[in-house]
């Protein structure tokens, strides 16, 4: 990474990640925690995001320090072909996220126009939002996620305050007790997995940072505050009204036509990052291909998928992301921070022991979901995976010393 490409200040990361967190998907996920009641739900949100956002910041640190994209950094632990595997998996999850974000926003926007004017055109909204995401990408790094993003986030901050007033003007939500339907561990996992889903992306942006501290702390604070706030709004709305539907909240706030702009803007600032990083991951597979053009192509694919996405599978989609990327980054973080492996090894095509540990971690993740551990699945799995990798590296080191 050339130094003249490092132009992004800490304040830009603060705005970038706050804007990424202000999304309909985060409000909807917060609503899934409502059966816990407000107090336990709030505790799950804060603890889960404290863990998940800290992991996110560690990924951002690697990008800021080494000046490399997120999936390229996996070559440190898994080799070139290993990074290809994870790039392909990341492209799948990001195209999936693009589709989920577009369809969730399109449904909310369509609800608003149907209630206000009787205009019911879900597919048209999906195509329109997908086109705006493509436009945001086409504006490029300087226009797309610096100048415009900072202006957009100022507006979204005001909207967030307004939604909070709508949801919590009646303090009855604060006294709601648990009714069952989700365990504390399950709620904690849904809070951890949202920031975790951004781990394969964050270094794509922090590699452009002027300094590491600004990138890490700006990203951490922006995402932690924004995402916790969205979860709490969704939690409170579901407790009060039985629904975490953002369109209903905005209409209740008297926003009317303005609700459309807010829904679209919140979606574009988030979905842009998914689509752009999908292009970056594709560039790891085929370096000769331009990442911006690939991002535009993958946006088109995500938009097409949005026309047929089943939102009932949303929670399973989140957990599938956790199963893949929790053990992946446990291996990378263990190598980078614990074992001091901070450079890509020349000529390393596949690190089979690391891939084997990752595979065990994926299997273990689903076992932990079955157990329904109070600490969720991500954190225990990452700790166990890191310890297992430590043992594997020690055995490998001993074998090399013995000449085996």
Automatic annotation (TrEMBL):
<comment type="similarity">
    <text>Belongs to the purine-cytosine permease (2.A.39) family.</text>
</comment>
<dbReference type="InterPro" id="IPR001248">
    <property type="entry name" value="Pur-cyt_permease"/>
</dbReference>
<protein>
    <submittedName>
        <fullName>Putative hydroxymethylpyrimidine transporter CytX</fullName>
    </submittedName>
</protein>
<feature type="transmembrane region" description="Helical">
    <location>
        <begin position="220"/>
        <end position="242"/>
    </location>
</feature>
<keyword id="KW-0812">Transmembrane</keyword>
<feature type="transmembrane region" description="Helical">
    <location>
        <begin position="373"/>
        <end position="392"/>
    </location>
</feature>
<feature type="transmembrane region" description="Helical">
    <location>
        <begin position="151"/>
        <end position="168"/>
    </location>
</feature>
<dbReference type="InterPro" id="IPR012732">
    <property type="entry name" value="Thia_CytX"/>
</dbReference>
<dbReference type="GO" id="GO:0005886">
    <property type="term" value="C:plasma membrane"/>
</dbReference>
<feature type="transmembrane region" description="Helical">
    <location>
        <begin position="12"/>
        <end position="36"/>
    </location>
</feature>
<feature type="transmembrane region" description="Helical">
    <location>
        <begin position="180"/>
        <end position="199"/>
    </location>
</feature>
<feature type="transmembrane region" description="Helical">
    <location>
        <begin position="248"/>
        <end position="272"/>
    </location>
</feature>
<feature type="transmembrane region" description="Helical">
    <location>
        <begin position="317"/>
        <end position="337"/>
    </location>
</feature>
<feature type="transmembrane region" description="Helical">
    <location>
        <begin position="293"/>
        <end position="311"/>
    </location>
</feature>
<keyword id="KW-1133">Transmembrane helix</keyword>
<keyword id="KW-0472">Membrane</keyword>
<feature type="transmembrane region" description="Helical">
    <location>
        <begin position="76"/>
        <end position="102"/>
    </location>
</feature>
<dbReference type="GO" id="GO:0015209">
    <property type="term" value="F:cytosine transmembrane transporter activity"/>
</dbReference>
<feature type="transmembrane region" description="Helical">
    <location>
        <begin position="122"/>
        <end position="139"/>
    </location>
</feature>
<dbReference type="InterPro" id="IPR030191">
    <property type="entry name" value="CodB"/>
</dbReference>
<feature type="transmembrane region" description="Helical">
    <location>
        <begin position="349"/>
        <end position="367"/>
    </location>
</feature>
<dbReference type="Pfam" id="PF02133">
    <property type="entry name" value="Transp_cyt_pur"/>
</dbReference>
<feature type="transmembrane region" description="Helical">
    <location>
        <begin position="42"/>
        <end position="64"/>
    </location>
</feature>
């Amino acid at each position: 990474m050339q130094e003249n490409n490092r132009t992004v200040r800490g304040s830009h990361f603060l705005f970038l990640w706050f804007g990424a967190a202000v999304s309909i998907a985060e409000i909807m996920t917060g609503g899934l925690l409502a059966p816990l009641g407000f107090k336990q739900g709030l505790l799950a949100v804060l603890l889960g995001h404290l863990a998940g956002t800290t992991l996110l910041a560690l990924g951002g640190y690697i990008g800021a320090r080494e000046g490399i994209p997120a999936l390229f950094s996996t070559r440190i632990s898994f080799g070139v072909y290993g990074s290809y595997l994870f790039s392909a998996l990341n492209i799948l999850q990001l195209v999936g996220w693009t589709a989920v974000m577009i369809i969730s926003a399109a449904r909310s926007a369509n609800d608003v126009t149907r209630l206000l004017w009787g205009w019911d055109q879900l597919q048209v909204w999906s195509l329109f939002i997908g086109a705006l995401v493509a436009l945001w990408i086409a504006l490029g790094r300087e226009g797309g996620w610096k100048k415009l993003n900072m202006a957009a986030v100022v507006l979204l901050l005001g909207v967030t305050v307004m939604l909070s007033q709508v949801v919590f003007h009646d303090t009855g939500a604060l006294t709601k007790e648990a009714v069952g339907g989700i365990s504390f561990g399950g709620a904690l996992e849904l809070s951890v997995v949202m920031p975790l889903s951004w781990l394969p992306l964050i270094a794509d942006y922090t590699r452009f940072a002027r300094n590491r501290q600004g990138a890490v702390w700006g990203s951490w604070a922006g995402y932690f505050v924004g995402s916790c706030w969205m979860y709490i709004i969704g939690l409170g709305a579901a407790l009060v009204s039985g629904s975490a539907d953002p369109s209903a909240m905005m209409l209740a706030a008297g926003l009317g036509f303005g609700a459309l702009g807010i829904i679209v803007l919140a979606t574009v600032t988030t979905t842009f990052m998914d689509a752009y990083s999908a292009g970056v991951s594709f560039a790891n597979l085929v370096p000769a291909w331009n990442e911006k053009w690939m991002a535009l192509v993958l946006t088109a694919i995500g938009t097409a998928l949005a026309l047929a996405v089943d939102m009932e599978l949303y929670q399973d989609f989140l957990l599938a992301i956790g199963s893949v990327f929790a053990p992946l980054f446990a291996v990378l973080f263990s190598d980078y921070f614990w074992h001091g492996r901070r450079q890509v090894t020349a000529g390393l095509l596949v690190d089979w022991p690391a891939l084997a540990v990752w595979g065990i971690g994926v299997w273990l993740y689903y076992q932990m979901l079955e157990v329904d551990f109070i600490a969720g699945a991500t954190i225990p799995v990452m700790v166990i995976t890191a310890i297992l990798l430590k043992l594997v590296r020690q055995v490998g080191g001993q074998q090399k010393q013995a000449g085996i």
